[in-house]
Structure formats: structure tokens, C-alpha cells
Amino acid sequence: MPPRAVSDHGVIAPHDPTPDPSKVAGQAGASAAPAPESAEVAASASARVSAPDPDADAPGAAARGEAVLSLEAVGAGYDERLALHGVSFAARPGDRIAVLGPNGGGKTTLFRVILGELSARTGRVDRSGDVAVVPQTERSRLDFPVSALDVVLMGTIAGRAWWRGPRRADREAGREALAAVGLEDRASTTFGALSGGQRQRVMVARALVRRARVLLLDEPYRGLDTRSAARLDELIVELAGRGHALLIATHDVSQARAWDQVLCLNGGQVAFGPPATTLTPQVLAATYGGELLRVGPDGELAVVAEHHCG
Amino acid sequence: MLEPFTLPFVQQGLREILLLSVGAGVLGTWIVLRGLAFYAHGVAAATFPGLVLAAGLGFAGPLGALGVALLFAAAVGRLAARGERGDHSTLTAMVLVGALALGVVLASDVFPLATTVNSLLFGSLLVIADRDLVIAAVTSVVVLGASLALGTRWLAVGFDREGSRALGVGAGVPDAVLLVLVALVAVSTLTAVGSLLAAAIMVIPAATTRPWVQRMGRWQVATVLLTALEGVAALWLSARTNAPPGATLAVLAGAAFALSVLARAVAHRRRDRTSRGASLDLSQSPAGAVARG
What is A2-129+213-303's CATH topology? Predict the structure, then answer.
């Protein structure tokens, strides 16, 4: 009970233990009529969020076991004001959790709290395994004289005494991590000479080499071309299949629909649950506020693209 | 041709430059990689009043220089720790100018040292004492050891600071050690190139070799070799022509750097030309479909 109860904190989502998948599927079409009414209709018809049986939603979820990360009523901030409040959710092995929200919505703050860089002012964070972050590759230096393996080995530094360089075992672990992301043949390529998608995967390998069970991906699709994005999709499925819990910060709502859970943040937690039942027009409106557009013949909701960093 | 190297004072200079080139070359790569070139220049220049004070009051010059250099390192380190990134350069420039002015005033008005100012500012590679050799050797050993122990951390923090913090790699102590090491190497190069030309041996060789190597280890070896080569050539030239050795070394290093940049530009242009030919070929194939996303 405790890990699932957290989705009850979803502010908007009404509680209904029996979501109806057929109605959910019609949600986008239902919002074709003028905006406000249709949003309510769609919400009342299909937005029965929270606490569905995990088995119904993601096959094999029951076998995935205990949560590797759980947050309860977490609040955090940099000054007197809380940048983030009321965050409660749990991640189990194999969960792919989309973290949606506008810039300044608290995604970065949440990641820093989960990493332990920022302590939670309220609530509780329980980690039962190492957490690693995959930062945006544009923050790293492409002009550095380092190979892909050198970058991966940066993930092993914290586990060593300060005077030690990488040992043989570290190098082997580094090569394994590169193999896990399909880059075993690029170990000695200079990092800056790799493509954007390959650099992204090197950063994933750097997180994997720490044997982290929870991976935080910070806007991993930003700047990737279609092929690299498809390759990243596959990698995310593979990683989840190997039992990692993934939190993926993204702006792409349609992408979030393909994953297991979605966490909507806008200063606080707006909703958490399976995307099919969670991503209602109401929730999206509360998450993104004025940054929402209605596009296409079916009046589908779209998030206005943001070009600045959060 | 090689007869200058039979002179004992040239041989002494040769030993000094070879010992220095290890520490200065290895640390130079870190200085260039971590963007500390101006700091390196500043810390070396700031030692000038320390040298003047030491000469005037009659205590060991390197001691006075090291004291001022460590003060300077501590100030910059505190600024960096407070997270005020970016505009250290203004403050560094002000301290640099202030230190030079203070040194000149001390040398001309407080102590009768006007004649030695020249060698304090530009070095005296042909007047090397055994004490200088010891300092150079110790400095090189310390730099080598620190680079082996802390190199991966210096690299990780420079590569992506926030990511490193998330990986549990703290920047504080390793970066403070780096700043202190730069101060130490600056002090050890003073007798060779003086307060004002330290960059010629600490920064320029590493910047010269940088475009040609893509790995840290190879870059360090190449930089040590180049530093030694430039030092030996400068000694020979200055012994032959009676030019001041520090300035000769700086001119040689600058010329090598210009050559390196030029050669790199030529190589790039040649590569661009070949790759442009290749991409023209590509554009004629029906590859447009890839861009649908």
C-alpha cells in the first residue's frame, strides 16, 4: 500500500480505482469541441487517475518488487520559498517515469533532491540504491582531450581513495557500461568527435558504471536527430528491462504517454500515475498553465516549445 | 656550434630548464585545460613585490615570492569557492597591476634595488644557483605526483562541474591544490623567466601542443618535450647572441605557438575541402527523407 498511496497526492486527479482504457483512448478526440467544456468532459469521462492495479497497466510490474526510490510529501527550495512542494511518488525497478513540467517547474530541484545534493525541507526521501544523473550533454566540454572510456571512468572516481587512478577493474566496468549502451567499439574515440546521440549514450554509460539503480535523465532528447532519438527510445526500454528505474525529464507529452508513469510538476506535484489516466487536459493545463496550445484537427494539446534552460 | 654548452653557467642553466620543464609542462596542460592561464600570469607577476622585499630585507627570494603567491592563490580560491565564476579576470588584473606598482615603488624608493629589478622581472637563466635547481626538482616531483593522484578529478570537474558534483566528485580540495601548485610552479620559474614571463614556460608550450594531441597523457609528454626543447634553444641562442635568456625563451615560445596555430589552420582548411567534396556527393543522393523528423 504505501508506495501506491502516493499517487493520491495528485492534486487534480479524482480517485477512481477502475480506469476505463477505451475512454482514455478517446480522450484526444473528445477535446475537439470548444476548449473549456471539452476539457471538463474529457476529464470527467476518462481522467480517473491514480491507484490502478499495476499489473493491468504494465505487465510484470508485480514481479518488479519493492520501490527503489520513494518520496513522501517532499518539499525543497533554495531560499525561504519552496521551489518544490508536496512531491510523493515511488519508483520501482523497471519503471520509466516521465517528469513533465514547465521550466522552473521544479524538475531540476527534484533531481537535486533525489541525488542528495539538496536536502528536502519537508517530507522524506528513501533511496534503496545508488542514484545517478545523465546530464544534458551540451553542458559538457567537447574540446576536452578525453576518450569515451575516460568520460565513463569519471563515474568511478567517487568509489576510490583520492590518490588512486582508475584500476583494471574500473576499466573493465567502464567497457561493460559502454557495451551496455552499444558503444563498445567507440571506447577510444575522442568524446567531442562522437555524434550527439553517441555522447548522450556515453553519459548514460557514465551513470551505469556506478551500478546505479535509479537513473535521472535530464531532457535526454534535446538536440537529438530522429535516428538518435529512436536509438535512445530503445536504450530506455533496455535499461528498464534490466531493472533500472528511470526518471526522464522531458517536454514531450506524447513521448511521456509511452512510458509507465508520469509525474507532473509545476512548483508542486500536480499528478502522478500511469500516463493514460493521468495526462488529462485538466492536468496538463495545471502543469503547464498558459504554455499550452490546442493544435490539429482533433484539438490535441501541445506544449509550447521552450528554448531556454530550466 | 655546441660550444656554449661547455660553459659551466650555461650548463647550470641547462639543468635548471630541464628540471623545470617537467613540472611546468605537466602543470601547463592543466592550466590550459582548466582556463587558468591568466591566473598563472597573475600569480607570477604578484610575486614581484615579494622578491623585492626579500632582496631589500635580505631573506631568501623564493620565500618572499612564495608568500605573496600563496596569498594570491588563497584570494582567487576563495572567490572561486564563493561561486563567483566568470569575472575573476578584472580582479586578477587589478591585483597584478597593483603588485607590479608596489614592487617598483619598493625597489626604487625604499630599497636601492633599481638595478636588480630587470632580472627579477625577466629572469636570469644564466645565473642559476644550486638552490634554484633544488626548487625546480622538488616542484617537478610534487607536480608529477599531484597530477597522477588528482588528474582524473581535475579532468572530471573541468569536463562538467555539475555532473561531477552529482557523481560525488567534489571540486573543492582538488581545485585548491591546483591553484596552489600553479603558485608553486610560478615561483620555481622565477629565476629562469622572472615575474613577467612565467607564461612563456607555464602556458604557451601547452597551448602550442594542444591542437595536435587528443589525450591528456600524450599532451603532457609533448608539452614537457617542447618546453625542454624551447628552453635549450633559448639558452643556446642567448649564449650565442648575448640576448637576455628569459626574453629569448618567450619569443621562441611565442613563435612556436604562432607556427602551431598556422599549421593547424592549414590542416583544417585542407580537411574541410575534402569533406566538402564528400558532402556534395551526398547531397545528390536521395537522402532528404532522413530529415522528416
Answer: Rossmann fold (3.40.50)
